[in-house]
């Protein structure tokens, strides 16, 4: 009898010990599995999240907009999959501020002319105005207006190495304030906001400033009635002032890839209806 009891007891104790070990190991394995699942969840969520859509309004690299919903189902902007340009706006005034009083536009009611500030998106603006040029004229800087190579500036803004604006007859301080580098400058040496580029460009391009004020030159979106609220696009939103001649082409704009023509409604053979106006004249 003893021969049977002792082996049975030893076997029972061994089994109990093994069950205890397995019971302790199982939660750890489950926890590890749960941790692995939790770590995989953000990766899966990131993979399933829609890609960020960014398009430009007037000049690539200068007026980018990130598509987002301003209301359920209504995006702030629709981007062209062909050119990457903005096609239409859910809210043309999104992110705009009232345009400061501008000479020649005094009759426009307050708040009816708005602009989208670019100063917040200019990478080096804060550095130019505080870190490097903090209201003083740098030592060793040229005393005349003959352009000279400035390696630091050429590294930061490659376009200025071969400044084509003015065909080589102007340089930095014809446009930028000499001690407040985060500002532009007028003919009297007074600072101009970087968001008011039309007041700088009008110093030399008076005819273009006049046409811009009259709505002949430039771009506006918003209410198309004569007294309606409109967003005005300023000069540097469309033109790159550091490379305005666009290299060897010596012209102001790089041609965009055209959009495909819109589809006509079913059953319509042509678009001759656009030649007639709904209101008789």
Overall average residue pLDDT: 76
Helix fraction by DSSP (H/I, runs of at least 4): 25-40%
Query: Rounded to an integer, what's the Rg over CA atoms?
Result: 33 Å
Give the biggest sheet.
4 strands, mixed
Major β-sheet strand ordering: 7-8-12-11
Kindly give the count of domains.
Answer: 2
The class by helix and strand makeup works out as alpha+beta
User: Could you name the ranges where pLDDT drops below 50 across 5 or more consecutive residues?
Assistant: 21-32
Give the overall form: globular
**How many beta-strand runs?**
12
The number of helical segments is 6
What does the model show?
- It is a single chain.
- The chain is of the alpha+beta class and 281 residues long.
- The protein folds into two domains: 39-91, no CATH class; 95-249, no CATH class.
- Helix content is 28%, strand content 12%.
- The chain is built from six helices and twelve strands.
- It has helices at 2-48, 125-132, 151-156, 197-201, 206-213, 235-238, and strands spanning 54-56, 64-66, 69-71, 74-75, 77-79, 86-89, 97-98, 113-115, 183-185, 191-193, 220-222, 230-232.
- It has a four-stranded mixed sheet with strand order 7-8-12-11, with no helix packed on it.
- β1 and β2 (64-66) form a beta hairpin.
- The longest helix has 47 residues, at 2-48.
- It is globular and about 75 Å long.
- The termini are far apart.
């Amino acid at each position: 009898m003893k021969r049977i009891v002792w082996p049975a007891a030893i076997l029972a104790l061994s089994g109990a010990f093994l069950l205890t070990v397995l019971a302790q190991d199982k939660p750890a394995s489950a926890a590890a599995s749960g941790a692995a699942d939790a770590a995989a969840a953000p990766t899966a969520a990131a993979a399933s999240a829609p890609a960020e859509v960014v398009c430009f309004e007037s000049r690539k690299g200068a007026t980018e907009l990130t598509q987002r919903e301003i209301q359920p189902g209504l995006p702030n902007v629709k981007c062209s999959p062909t050119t990457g340009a903005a096609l239409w706006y859910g809210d043309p005034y999104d992110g705009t501020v009232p345009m400061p009083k501008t000479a020649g536009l005094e009759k426009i009611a307050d708040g009816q002319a708005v602009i989208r500030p670019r100063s917040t998106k200019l990478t080096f603006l804060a550095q130019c105005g505080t870190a490097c040029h903090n209201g003083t004229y740098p030592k060793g800087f040229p005393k005349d207006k003959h352009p000279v190579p400035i390696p630091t500036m050429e590294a930061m803004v490659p376009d200025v190495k071969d400044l084509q604006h003015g065909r080589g007859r102007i340089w930095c301080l014809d446009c930028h304030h000499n001690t407040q580098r985060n500002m532009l400058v007028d003919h009297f040496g007074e600072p101009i906001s970087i968001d008011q580029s039309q007041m700088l460009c009008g110093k030399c391009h008076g005819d273009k400033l006049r046409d811009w004020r009259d709505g002949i030159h430039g771009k506006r979106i918003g209410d198309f009635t004569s007294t309606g609220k409109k967003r005005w696009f300023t000069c540097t939103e469309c033109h790159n002032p550091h490379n305005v001649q666009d290299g060897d082409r010596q012209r102001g704009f790089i041609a965009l890839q055209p959009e495909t023509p819109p589809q006509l409604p079913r059953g319509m053979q042509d678009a001759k209806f656009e030649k007639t106006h709904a209101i008789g004249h």
